[in-house]
Specification:
Blueprint lengths: L2 E5 L6 H12 L2 E3 L7 H8 L6 H17 L5 E4 L5 H8 L4 E7 L2 H10 L10 H7 L9 E5 L4 H15 L1
Parallel strand pairs: 1-3, 1-4, 2-3, 4-5
Helix pairs in contact: 1-7, 3-4
């Protein structure tokens, strides 16, 4: 089965949408942040962007999760900012990318108002600078995060079913 990767920069709503999509499909959900080694969390908390080398073990762990869910399906979040990162995730098996994208101002406001998350707003611009949009040959679709979570979930599931 195909695993849905909910992707986007910090504050885009990956957890909210990903959890709801997984519930609607009746499959497991995994939060990408739980795959980060403590050094990555500490680095981001201190306001330093991750490098490709920092992200490599994190992406490998998410790819392992994807591989383990090829029979049952699943939903996992991941910023998946660069195509090369998405290539690593695709190495785990069949995936479909649900890209949540929107205005910087909305993203920053969301980041400022959420509690209990390590990612500071100061890192948003570095994530946006690294973001490479989905290419036509990558399975998935981009959705405007200005929509409500319920609208996003409905639209994403409709698009995913068209793909399947």
């Amino acid at each position: 089965m195909t695993v849905i990767v909910v992707m986007g920069v910090s504050g885009s709503g990956k957890t909210t949408v990903g959890t709801a999509v997984a519930q609607r499909l009746g499959v497991d959900y995994a939060e990408a942040d739980t795959f980060h080694p403590p050094a990555n969390i500490a680095k981001m908390t201190a306001g330093h962007p991750l490098t490709d080398a920092d992200r490599a073990p994190w992406l490998a762990e998410i790819a392992k999760w994807i591989a383990a869910h090829q029979d049952s399906g699943g939903v996992v979040s991941s910023s998946a900012l660069k195509r090369s990162y998405r290539d690593v995730l695709r190495g785990g098996g069949a995936v479909w990318f649900l890209h949540l994208h929107g205005a910087r101002e909305l993203l920053a406001e969301r980041m400022k108002t959420r509690s209990g998350h390590f990612m500071p707003v100061s890192l948003l611009d570095s994530q946006l600078a690294d973001l490479e949009p989905l290419q036509p040959d990558e399975p998935g679709r981009t959705f405007d995060l200005a929509q409500s979570p319920a609208e996003l979930v409905d639209a994403a599931l409709s698009a995913f079913r068209e793909h399947a």
